[in-house]
Amino acid sequence: MIVMENVCKSYKIAKRNAGFGEACKALFRREYDVIHALQNVSFTIEDGEMVGYIGPNGAGKSSTIKILSGILTPDSGTVLVDGRIPYKDRIAHVRQIGVVFGQRSQLWWDVPVIDSFELLKDIYGIPHNVYQNNIEELTELLGLKELLRSPARQLSLGQRMRCEIAASLLHSPRILFLDEPTIGLDAVSKLAVRDFIKKQNELHNTTVILTTHDMQDIEALSKRIILIGKGKILLDGGLSDIKKGGANIDETVAELYRSYEI
Questions:
Q1: What is the rounded distance in angstroms from the CA atom of residue 234 to the CA atom of residue 236?
Q2: Of residues 80 and 249, which shows the higher confidence score?
Q3: Is the C-alpha dihedral spanning 176, 178, 184, 238 positive or negative?
Q4: Rounded to an integer, what distance in angstroms lies between the CA atom of residue 128 and that of residue 212?
Q5: pLDDT tens digit sequence for 231-242
Q6: Do residues 53 and 38 lie in contact, with contact meaning Cβ atoms separated by under 8 Å?
Q7: Which domain holds residue 180?
Q8: ∠ at Cα 120 (200, 199), nearest 5°?
Q9: Residues 50, 68: contact at Cβ < 8 Å?
Q10: Within a domain: 136
Q11: What's the average model confidence in pLDDT over 53-75?
């Protein structure tokens, strides 16, 4: 179970005007803006749920995922993932979670994908038999057989994302955080990734939190939607609750954004 209660997170961002003179002034006196990324964010996600976590750019989605995965520490509030505080018990925590950031890679760029997998096996201390079973299952479900011996830099974006998802699941995590997992993918690759995530949830009861701007991903994978805007939770409900008449999912979400002025 994932629980967030009244979580707040702010960032200080330095600012200055253009020009050499302004740069010199900033050496002695800096000005800052305070960005309130999360403001009293609260929600609970049960084991085995697949939840779409949506909102416009800068809404606080990635900050939430980074706090849940233990990368960031909140300013205040309570965060529990399977009874652990992510940023305090990071070693035990990362053994139970998988994280995919669509614009970041955990594969080593110049070596074959299978070498990256072998290194991750050692990092996580995955038993050999578990690793072999997982490699076989992931290779079959994601169609990786022809990709494992190729360096990551020689793969297409869609091929690399399938490998990234496999890498995040080698250690059999109970929870999967997906931050823009289909960004830039073609239609065929998107369908393959969606089908795999569904099967992973059905076979292993994996809890999935999906953040994306692709509303077709949300519609295909999630029955529950959490909408965040300006750092605040604005809506938490079922997909069927927000759809109106014959409107498609993109029109529905665009109308939501307008109604909440985000």
A1: 7
A2: 80
A3: positive
A4: 34
A5: 999 999 887 777
A6: no
A7: 2-96+173-259
A8: 5
A9: no
A10: no
A11: 93
pLDDT value, residue 238? 86
When pLDDT is cut at 50, 70 and 90, the band that residue 247 belongs to is low
Please check whether residue 12 lies inside any domain of the structure. Answer: yes
C-alpha pair distances (Å), 236 with each of 70, 228, 241: 23, 9, 10
Name residue, tokens 């297409």. 156
pLDDT at residue 246 in the model: 63
Cβ partners under 8 Å of residue 34, min gap 6? 10, 11, 12, 13
Give yes or no for residue 113 having a pLDDT over 90.
Answer: yes
Residue 52: its pLDDT value, please? Answer: 94
Classified as helix, coil or strand, 261 is coil
- Tell me, what CATH number does 230's domain have? 3.40.50.300
Q: With respect to residue 165, please indicate whether it lies within any of the assigned structural domains.
A: no
Amino acid found at 117: F
21, exposed or middle or buried, with CB in 10 Å at 0-12, 13-18, 19+?
exposed
What pLDDT does residue 96 have? 92
Report if residue 123 sits inside a domain. no
Secondary structure (H, E, C), 70-85: CCCCCCEEEEEECCEC
Question: Nearest 5 degrees, angle CA 164-CA 166-CA 169?
Answer: 115
Which pair of structure tokens corresponds to residue 247?
Answer: 């409107």
Neighbours of 137 (CB within 10 A): 17
Question: Are 158 and 189 contacting, i.e. CB atoms less than 8 angstroms apart?
Answer: yes
